[in-house]
Write a structure and sequence with these properties.
- By secondary structure, the protein is mainly beta.
- It is 0% helix and 46% strand.
- The protein has no helices and 30 strands.
- It has strands spanning 20-25, 28-29, 34-40, 50-53, 56-64, 67-71, 81-85, 88-91, 97-98, 106-108, 111-115, 119-121, 123-125, 134-138, 141-142, 144-145, 149-151, 156-158, 168-175, 182-190, 224-229, 232-233, 238-246, 253-258, 261-262, 266-273, 279-286, 293-301, 304-305, 315-318.
- The strands form 7 sheets. A 7-stranded antiparallel β-sheet has the order 1-3-6-5-4-7-8, with no helix packed on it.
- A hairpin with a 2-residue loop joins strand 5 (56-64) and strand 6.
- It is elongated and about 115 Å long.
């Protein structure tokens, strides 16, 4: 059983006239928002009442003599709410603020990999590139927590001290003025690079050593794809995809895996890799018959290949 946190009492006797509004919950919202109107003198049925938002009629879904439930109508503007019933009319004590539809927002970066105990800044922008006023969350938890990482009010994400399970968390942004406008980014938490102590013992040789002889040592780094942009495309289209990564030097093959097998409905052309191996581009053609869903972007180099498992940053979706 839950706890009773609050009881509100509304004194309708203080309202002059036969019809009056004591409370509107909520006092701001976009088109389609449900609003409750409390007061006195309302009609007992939906048909007995008329409600307008600054003169624009609203649909009534529930009615009682002291309570009406309505939705903000299309075309409404900020202004007073008026209720008209068999016994007269009443006006809300304050203005109802109609919020504009904000539209889509975008998070940058859309996907990334972050070492434990390090930070990654995120930004949220509107379609015109201006900063968006958002609330930041991690795995839908406002501000995140120590287990999955935290994020500040200005979008600075700090990875947890250890890799969580699963290792991919979701950073999301929700617009403060339009809760329907959201965007998210997948963040793969990776462990620190392993460092091991090596003990070397040199024995004095009995032979003469030619000190002019040198030897080179090289370490091969397996390729890792950290982000794909764009990471979605529709069937029957061709897009140029840019992959951020490490260890891509000399890449010889790029495929898109569906259910751990090469997807024959997607073809790759013009694979180009930057000199330092941190970025690659390719023209990706998606057949009109391509089934919808996620693919794992998989690259092969002379020194190895990237993981065949989806890590968030290496996913491409056909939608």
């Amino acid at each position: 059983m839950g706890n009773l946190l609050r009881i509100d009492r509304f004194d309708t006797s203080a309202i002059s006239g036969e019809v009056g509004i004591t409370l509107v919950a909520t006092t701001r919202g976009r088109t389609g928002t449900e609003v409750q109107i409390f007061g006195k003198g309302f009609g007992a049925s939906v048909a007995d009442n008329t409600v307008t938002f600054n003169g624009v009629p609203a649909a009534i879904t529930k009615a009682a003599p002291n309570r009406l439930v309505v939705t903000v109508p299309s075309g409404a503007t900020t202004g007073f709410i008026t209720v008209t019933g068999p016994r007269g009319s009443g006006q809300s004590p304050g203005l109802f603020v109609v919020l504009d539809v904000v539209g889509p927002i975008t998070i940058t970066p859309p996907a990334t990999a972050v070492l434990v105990n390090t930070t990654e800044p995120f930004t949220a922008t509107m379609q015109d590139g201006t900063p968006a006023a958002v609330e930041w969350r991690v795995n839908n938890l406002p501000g995140g927590d120590a287990a999955i990482g935290t994020i500040s009010a200005d979008g600075l994400y700090r990875a947890p001290a250890t890799v969580p399970n699963p290792a991919v968390v979701m950073v999301s942004a929700i617009h403060r003025d339009d809760r329907a406008s959201t965007a998210s980014a997948d963040v793969t938490i990776i462990p620190p690079i392993a460092v091991a102590a090596v003990s070397v013992t040199l024995a004095r040789p009995s032979l003469v050593v030619d000190k002019g002889v040198t030897a080179s040592v090289s370490i091969s780094v397996a390729p890792v794809i950290t982000s794909v942009a764009p990471n979605t495309a529709a069937p029957g289209t061709t897009v140029t995809v840019t992959m951020a990564s490490r260890g891509l030097s000399g890449a010889t093959r790029l495929v898109f895996l569906r259910e751990n097998a090469t997807d024959s409905t997607i073809t790759i052309a013009n694979l180009l890799v930057s000199a330092d191996g941190t970025q690659a581009t390719a023209d990706v053609t998606i057949d009109a018959s391509a089934p919808l869903g996620d693919r794992v972007v998989h690259v092969v180099t002379p020194t190895g290949s990237s993981t065949r498992a989806g890590t968030g940053g290496n996913l491409f979706a056909v939608r």
